[in-house]
């Protein structure tokens, strides 16, 4: 990996390079996505089935688009029982963590007859998108479905592309069943996002769409925002490790590569106060890359977006980490909890050498759907909050309103909204 001395110039160059990975930079795909969305919006199922035939080579129609109980039972027979047991253990951890995020309605009453409050209501229907193809992501199913279940969403549907035989990856079906998905549809890509956003005869319109996908899925979610809510427009995966001379270089190298293997646009960055550690980690990275199965993807990721930055002290390391605002941040220092208190921008923070990033991806409990590409400066991980909405409650008695009615009338009159003022005034006419 390239080793760079941390300066203002090198920091700015790296930040500029990382921003090239943003989905906002992929305008050349937007026209193709817009055409798909319009087709689904105007032609519904007919267009959906055509796209499924063209892109997935599967003959899907109104009779077979829904995954049946028989197909789910078959999936259970094809998945290793030990993996099913691991999925169930992960569900316990994920559900337990998210249950602590639940919010409740509240009301505050006063002696003068004023009642103010907030009513919390779960969304009615949520759509979860799960990628298909050769890769299976049962962990994504759990992370997107379980907070919605904890929030109390009435119905959770899932869209995932089928293979050419019209089958869905078995581990995806098992994870969906275990997590509590209500209906699973064989549909993928931007066309599935459009179907969930607008509704077709086969797939109902949802209130929110969440889940990962390729650039077409990401741009489709961005385009339908407003018709429905979305979780985020996610960019490529990324990890940043803050480490000092006490860190184990082999562990750090392994953790950097855990994200570099995702795709060629993934980012892996080490910020360290130790030049000796920088060189040792670089050497360990080379050893790992030579033996790992996805070495071509890893090498391109490291060549494009991999850095080892040498900082003069921990404060400078934290400053650049806050600027980058990485999706995943590991702190492997002598006092990781102390360093953590200085961190302002990160999707998820992993403390100590035995808290590597994959722990959060699969098992610990916190959500692995995280802000990417610097958006951790203003976005949070997916949570129960994403599946509820809040209504303000206002109730005044006559006495309570009478005490302040002239104040409201003055405010409304100052804005030249006389009908507003009149709405209050008529209640106190002689």
UniProtKB/TrEMBL annotation:
Swiss-Prot/TrEMBL GO biological process terms: L-histidine biosynthetic process
Cofactor: Zn(2+)
InterPro entries (alphabetical): Ald_DH/histidinol_DH, Histidinol_DH_CS, Histidinol_DH_monofunct, Hstdl_DH
CC terms in the record's Gene Ontology section: cytosol
Enzyme Commission (EC) number: 1.1.1.23
GO MF annotation terms: histidinol dehydrogenase activity; NAD binding; zinc ion binding
Record Pfam families: Histidinol_dh (PF00815)
Manner of cofactor binding, per the entry note: Binds 1 zinc ion per subunit.
Keyword terms: Amino-acid biosynthesis, Histidine biosynthesis, Metal-binding, NAD, Oxidoreductase, Zinc
Binding of substrate, residues: 237, 259, 262, 328, 361, 415, 420
Binding positions for Zn(2+) per the UniProt entry: 259, 262, 361, 420
Pathway where it operates: Amino-acid biosynthesis; L-histidine biosynthesis; L-histidine from 5-phospho-alpha-D-ribose 1-diphosphate: step 9/9
Active site: 327 (proton acceptor), 328 (proton acceptor)
Binding site for NAD(+): 129, 191, 214
Catalytic activity: L-histidinol + 2 NAD(+) + H2O = L-histidine + 2 NADH + 3 H(+)
Function as written in the Swiss-Prot or TrEMBL entry: Catalyzes the sequential NAD-dependent oxidations of L-histidinol to L-histidinaldehyde and then to L-histidine.
Stored HAMAP family: HisD
Family membership: Belongs to the histidinol dehydrogenase family.
Name of this protein: Histidinol dehydrogenase
Organism: Lachnospira eligens (strain ATCC 27750 / DSM 3376 / VPI C15-48 / C15-B4)
């Amino acid at each position: 990996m390239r080793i760079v001395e941390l300066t203002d110039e090198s920091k700015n160059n790296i930040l500029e390079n990382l921003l090239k990975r943003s989905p906002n930079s992929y305008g050349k795909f937007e026209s193709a996505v817009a055409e798909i969305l319009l087709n689904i919006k105007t032609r519904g199922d007919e267009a959906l089935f055509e796209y499924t035939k063209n892109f997935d080579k599967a003959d899907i129609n109104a009779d077979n688009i829904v995954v049946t109980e028989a197909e789910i039972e078959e999936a259970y027979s094809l998945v290793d029982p030990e993996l099913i047991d691991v999925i169930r253990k992960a569900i316990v951890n994920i559900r337990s963590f998210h249950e602590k995020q639940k919010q409740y309605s509240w009301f505050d009453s006063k002696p003068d007859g004023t009642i103010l409050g907030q009513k919390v209501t779960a969304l009615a229907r949520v759509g979860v998108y799960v990628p298909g193809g050769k890769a299976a992501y049962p962990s994504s199913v759990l992370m997107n479905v379980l907070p919605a279940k904890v929030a109390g969403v009435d119905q959770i549907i899932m869209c995932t592309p089928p293979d050419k035989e019209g089958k869905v990856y078995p581990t995806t079906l098992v994870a969906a069943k275990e997590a509590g998905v209500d209906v699973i549809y064989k549909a993928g890509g931007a066309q599935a996002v459009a179907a969930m956003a607008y509704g077709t005869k086969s797939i109902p319109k949802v209130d929110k769409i969440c889940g990962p996908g390729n650039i077409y899925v990401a741009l489709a979610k961005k385009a339908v925002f407003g018709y429905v809510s979305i979780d985020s427009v996610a960019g490529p995966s990324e990890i940043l490790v803050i480490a000092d001379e006490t860190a184990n270089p082999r562990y750090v190298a392994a953790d950097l590569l855990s994200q570099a293997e995702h795709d060629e646009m993934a980012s892996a960055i080490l910020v360290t106060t130790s030049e000796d550690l920088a060189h040792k980690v670089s050497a360990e990275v080379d050893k790992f890359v030579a033996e790992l199965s996805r070495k071509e993807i890893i090498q391109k990721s490291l060549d494009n977006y991999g850095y080892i930055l040498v900082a003069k002290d921990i404060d400078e390391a934290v400053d650049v980490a806050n600027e980058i605002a990485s999706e995943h941040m590991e702190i492997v220092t002598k006092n990781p909890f102390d360093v953590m208190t200085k961190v302002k921008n990160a999707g998820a923070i992993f403390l100590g050498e035995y808290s590597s990033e994959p722990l959060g991806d699969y098992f610990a409990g916190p959500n692995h759907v995280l802000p990417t590409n610097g958006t951790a400066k203003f976005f949070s991980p997916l949570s129960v909050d994403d599946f509820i909405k809040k209504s303000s409650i206002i109730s005044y008695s006559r006495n309570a309103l009478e005490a302040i009615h002239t104040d409201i009338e003055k405010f409304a009159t100052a804005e030249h909204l006389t009908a507003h003022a009149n709405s209050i005034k008529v209640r106190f006419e002689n």
